[in-house]
Amino acid sequence: MTDNRFSAVQSDLIAILEDIPPERMRLYVDRYLGKLQETVIADPDLLLTLETYVSCHGQMNELSSKLFIHRNTAAYRLMKLERLLNMQLKSTDSLLLLHLVFMFRSILDIRGKEASLPEVDMNTTPYKLTRKV
PucR C-terminal helix-turn-helix domain spans which residues (predicted)? Predict the structure, then answer.
């Protein structure tokens, strides 16, 4: 699986993670993002804030800069997320766990898109590729 959203290191990690059964990945995504996904309707910025915070390795200034929000707004959103998820987001263990969960979610999304693509039989397609001489 190749996707331009990921660095070379992330792509290598994804290659390793792809051996994990999708059901197991879905279990972790639902366990750690389930409450948040239910809340997204009321506050759609929370999921984006969390994903950006994790991708910024827990750096508040980088988070606020990437989202174009004030640092206090970012801090308030993170406080809401900590209460909702019942975890300390500054903890490296939490950041690692959430990073894996977001990678699982990306893998599942990509697999879902690949599975929904129709297969094309090049022998029966009405469009023939011809070369002009």
Answer: 46-101
